[in-house]
Amino acid sequence: AAAAFLLSPYVPCTALGSGRLRSRQAVCSELTSLLPLSENEGIMGALKDRGITTATPIQEAAIPFIMKGHSLSIHSETGSGKTLALLLPVLLGVADRAVEDNARILVLAPTRELAAQLAAEAELLIPPAATARTRLVTLGEKDAPTIENLQSASVIVATPIELSKALAAPDRELSDWLPGAIGTVILDEVDLLIPAKNFKGKKVG
Fold first, then answer.
1. Which residues, at least 6 apart from 147, have a Cβ–Cβ distance to it below 8 Å?
2. In b/e form, how buried is each residue of 123-147, taking b as 16+ CB within 10 angstroms?
3. Looking at residue 159, what DSSP letter applies?
4. Tens digit of each residue's pLDDT (9 = 90 or more) over 107-142
5. In 3D, which of 13, 92, 94, 93 has the Cα closest to residue 57?
6. C-beta neighbour count of 199 within 10 angstroms
7. pTM of this prediction exceeds 0.85
8. Can you point out the beta strands (E) in 11-82?
9. 189 secondary structure, DSSP code
10. Cα 3 to Cα 8: distance, rounded to the nearest angstrom
């Protein structure tokens, strides 16, 4: 798929028909005009419960590209709606479907705190009756990931370090299974995920 880079500074939105625009305000669309939310009442209800009906500028720019299957690199300020811009289009594709290989969503974040926030955000968007489930990969806890519980998840959220350690298990069962199980990858805070310095070492894979 084609890749695009979107730079969208945060500009407050005013929904169409909501009155006169202030300076530097952008007229943004209703989310229902960007996404087929009517086909998933659970996600639409979750958004309405949180008072989210209008797209932010970054959502209006990014969502149509993602819905067409394009790969994107988007940049916008904190609080501009990047997380929903990335999650909503892909969650619509898995929320009401049985878990399938090559259809899961892998979300990588630089810290466990951010990974936990992203997992919680995904959980809020997935209705309780949906077949989709979110799994946060954590190590050093009683519920460390196994191939069985990851196979039951539609959304897998992790930090690169914890995911790589989980994949380094001696039996290789998880590392053999995961690459063929993922259809979409989201890299949050990608500038923090890429090492600042080059280093030498053995190649993996």
1. 173, 174, 177
2. bebbbeebebbbbbbbeeeeeebeb
3. -
4. 999 998 999 999 988 888 876 666 667 888 876 555
5. 13
6. 5
7. no
8. 13-15, 26-28, 71-75
9. T
10. 16
